[in-house]
Amino acid sequence: MKTSISRKILLVLGLGLSWVLLSGCIPSLYPLYNEADLIYEPGLEGNWLSADSSQIWTFSQKTQVVYSGSYLGTSTDSVSQKYYHLVISQIKEGTITDTLEARLGKLGNQYYLDLTPDIEALNLNKEGITALHLIPGHTFYPMDWDGENQFKLYALNPDVLEKGIKDKKYSLKLEEIDSRPLLMSPTGQLQKFILAHGRDTTLFPPSDSFYKIP
């Protein structure tokens, strides 16, 4: 059974996690937010250039196709979701490297961004065997945003986190799956951790700043 779980998680954590921001980050099996906790800010939509001019992050409102009617008279409709479709482009290479779902929320007075691979972007058969084995992993980031034209993300320091868990400073469950660390704590426990330690810049050092562009 352990081998089966390991393979499922390993497959999905290799998706959409290749850029510098996530280097060394520890993903979580559970999201930082429940659906009821999400907020949607239209001001986040659009193109954002990284401070080093290496990447463009493009946020748009996520939509989901809904099917209705009988087999012979099926109709479709697009329903807007309370989260974002995020495309990350590398400027130098001129390529799209990552397609993700981005969820925005607030804990206390602090914005946080929860990122997970956009499985739909893989164009897989949802009833097929491959899709069955994909379990989306989550990474989350404290976010300073002025509500307009600039935001900064803070990335989790895996060494500080692992030491803090070992020393019982942080009450989180961390397991190693196929030699890769994975947070296994549920959403409620993650939120308590974030509320207590989310402003600790040793645990969450500054990662990158982004500026809105036309």
Describe this structure in words.
It contains four helices and ten strands. The protein is of the alpha+beta class. It has one domain (2-213). Strands 1-2-3-4-5-6-7-10 form an eight-stranded antiparallel beta barrel. Strands 8-9 form a two-stranded antiparallel ribbon. A hairpin with a 4-residue loop joins strand 1 (46-50) and strand 2. The longest helix is centred in the N-terminal third of the chain and has 12 residues, at 2-13. The chain is globular. The N and C termini lie far apart (50 Å).
Unreliable segments of 5+ consecutive residues: 1-20
Count the domains.
Answer: 1
- Element order, helices and strands? HEEEEEHEEHEEHE
What's the β-strand tally? 10
In terms of structural class, how would the helical and strand content be classed?
Answer: alpha+beta
Strand order of the largest sheet: 1-2-3-4-5-6-7-10
Features of this protein?
single chain; 214 residues; alpha+beta; 8-stranded antiparallel barrel; two-stranded antiparallel ribbon; 10 strands; 39% strand; disordered N terminus
Topology (SSEs and partners):
Elements: H1 2-13, E1 46-50, E2 55-68, E3 75-90, E4 95-107, E5 110-117, H2 129-132, E6 139-145, E7 150-154, H3 158-166, E8 174-177, E9 180-183, H4 187-197, E10 206-213
Antiparallel strand pairs: 1-2, 1-10, 2-3, 3-4, 4-5, 5-6, 6-7, 7-10, 8-9
